[in-house]
Amino acid sequence: MHEVKAKGILSAQNGMNIYRGCTHGCIYCDARSTCYQMDHDFDDIEVKGNAPELLEQALRRKRKKCMIGTGAMSDPYLHLEEKLCLTRRCLELIDEYGFGLAIQTKSDRILRDLDLLKSINRKTKCVVQMTLTTYDESLCRILEPHVCTTARRLEVLNILKEERIPTIVWMTPILPFINDTEENIRNLLSGCRTAGVYGILTFGIGVTLRDGDRQYFYRKLEEHFPGMKERYVRTYGNAYELPVPREKELMNLVRHECEEAGMEWQTAALFEYMHRFEDKQAGEQLSLFDFQS
């Protein structure tokens, strides 16, 4: 790891990334793509050590409350978080200043901060997003080797359900010829239904590959799935979007199962929900993207 002093912490849409890079080791990670212009090794985590100070300054300047997002580019619960506690300090500030939270992770370390998630959710809205890609535990350990498996993430979702904290599952990516089976989709959706998940994000059924990400992914395919790289190249060439062969059929399955279970599946509706600030104490909802500073 290496620490930097960042100049700012919140994006125009009120998202933040405390860390840059990742130690989860997911073989398909888009954040490895060269388009993000990372000037250090992906496993050498860049730590924004002054993130809490920058966040407090930004929150103090806000004229209106809004949702604060984190986890879009780098998981806020990396292994380093156990020691550094930067995510926790930022959540304390979000709670103290009365803002909402939309947080995305693959890690059960989020349960360490359950007290803060509950406190934020009592006053406004705290939405926890969890990525699930495969119901097969052995396959999960290959695709996402250094983070808790799907079974444990489902346990986390059920704990959050008990605490009445809304959750959204990113069921992506679904990798062609690897986890793109009807059985896998049905099992994941069944687990989400049991956990009372608010909605399922898919962005279609497939995976995207860009420069940087593609090379790493193909190395891992050669390591774990002999002959699979050649199959990908034959099928997709150098394409950015790689839909699974049964994409339409599996997407229809997702829609049907979600509608039957009362889970939202439409991407625009889910993002609207995550960006909509709710003041439970005042009994009112503030408008979407009300980000005046």
* Largest sheet composition: 6 strands, parallel
- Count of DSSP helices? 11
Gyration radius from CA atoms, angstroms: 19 Å
- In round numbers, the mean pLDDT is 95
Task: Give your account of this protein's structure.
39% of the residues lie in helices and 15% in strands. It has helices spanning 51-61, 81-84, 86-96, 114-123, 137-143, 150-162, 182-194, 213-224, 228-236, 247-261, 267-275, and strands spanning 2-4, 15-16, 19-20, 46-48, 67-70, 100-105, 126-131, 167-170, 199-201, 206-208, 241-243, 278-279, 284-285. A six-stranded parallel β-sheet has the order 2-5-6-7-8-9, sandwiched between helices. α1 (51-61) packs parallel to α3 (86-96), α3 (86-96) packs parallel to α4 (114-123) and α7 packs parallel to α10.
Structure in a nutshell:
With 293 residues, the chain is α/β, with parallel strands linked by helices.
Secondary structure topology:
Elements: E1 2-4, E2 15-16, E3 19-20, E4 46-48, H1 51-61, E5 67-70, H2 81-84, H3 86-96, E6 100-105, H4 114-123, E7 126-131, H5 137-143, H6 150-162, E8 167-170, H7 182-194, E9 199-201, E10 206-208, H8 213-224, H9 228-236, E11 241-243, H10 247-261, H11 267-275, E12 278-279, E13 284-285
Parallel strand pairs: 1-4, 2-5, 5-6, 6-7, 7-8, 8-9
Antiparallel strand pairs: 3-4, 10-11, 12-13
Helix pairs in contact: 1-3, 3-4, 7-10
